[in-house]
Amino acid sequence: MRDFLYLRFMETFYHTLPNGLRIVHRESMSEVAYIGIMIGAGTRDELPEENGMAHYIEHCVFKGTEHYSARQIINHIEGIGGEINAYTTKEETTFYTATLREHFRTTLHLLAELVLRPTFVKRETDKELTVIFDEIESYNDSPSELIYDDFENLVFEGSSLAMPILGTKKTLRRISKSPDIALNWMKTHYRPARMVLFVLGNVTTKQVIAAAEKELLFESGVGSRETGVGSRESGIGNQELGIQSRESGVRVFKRHTHQTHIMLGGRCYPIGHPKQLTMYLLNNILGGGSMSSRLYLSLREKHGLVYNVDSQATPLSDTGYWNIYMACEPQHKDQCMELCRAELRKLRDTRMSSSQLERALRQLQGQMAISAENQENNALAMAKQMMYYGHAPQWEETFVKLQDITAQQLQEVANEVYAEERLFTLMYD
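Below the sequence we write its predicted structure tokens.
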């Protein structure tokens, strides 16, 4: 029996409002409360002509609501010393705050205003459109960021997952022509059954439910889908494996960058898949952000070919993808790609020893323990777990499951996901 460190949190409480909106609440002793609303609507819910809609809405709701101007929204948060943030992904849009717990009710009221009652006054949204255009240009000027969009386009070609989160100037100009365009999209997708209210802080569950009943007990929108979560029909993955059936491919873009930017990867498992945790551990061994990962030791420490190299595994509701990213001098690109493939072959062909597995587990355990000290990350993770699992497991549960992973299981997943015939390669040359 491995000796695991266990992290303990206060109990997690769940509640569902009559309109279907779900609530997850976890008490903490901190005077800072993290409060947010996650909506199961993102880029993949857009039509091609709507590309960028979810991100555009995320920006523009801050430009005014039925009861507050843009200035009043900012003054409210800054006046109490709080912070407000928002982000858009392929599958979610999230608005959240960090404030002193005594401001919980008023902060939730403001969040409800943003999500339920934006006005999209054109003179204000036109200003924000310029900001988004600048964001697009900045993104296009950063190959280390842009390559992720192009890689997703390669892996998920032909599906809505291939569309960029920021959209294009052409689609955004269309979207911004009339406030009704964005408002109607929100009515369709910002539905209570697709929302999660999450609260992490020193407030009671009774207080959370009472505030939610006052601010968020609204009628459903006009859309036809009940949740949009776990039921999206993308046609891009297999529910059992999440592995693509289409052939892998190679794509090279001539972007005349100083360095050659390279990404290798493919599809992997969806959220909630039995092999997802094994994939998580495997990715950490391969290149999951530590200086002891196999890719870092090979390409940086042993050969000195890159400044940094890492890998990621990103599960989605019905599929997922993994990738290796690096940048190197053009004359080293072939050697770098071969070294990456060599590490993938080792994971496929050679089963880890018990000591190697033990070390990998302890490393991941430590990383998770350190991450768990960040309350903002905890709040966002809690929301996402509630969105897709229907509950927010404690870290202890994950540790127990990690303990059961075997070297054979790691090798089986490596052969399934890291197979050469399933590998996509993208290069900026």
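The chain has two domains: 12-215, 250-428.
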